[in-house]
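# step 3/5: fold
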Amino acid sequence: MAHDQNFRDESGVKMGWLAVITFIAVPVLPAVLAWYKFFAA
């Protein structure tokens, strides 16, 4: 089995950013929906 010394797994970085966005977006979602209903009426 070959081992590439220059191999970098970027999936951890992508999952980290996805977690940060999720932790910010989920609590804000009800407020965004409330503002949308307020301005759509």
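# step 4/5: annotate
The helical segments are 11-40.
# step 5/5: archive (pending)
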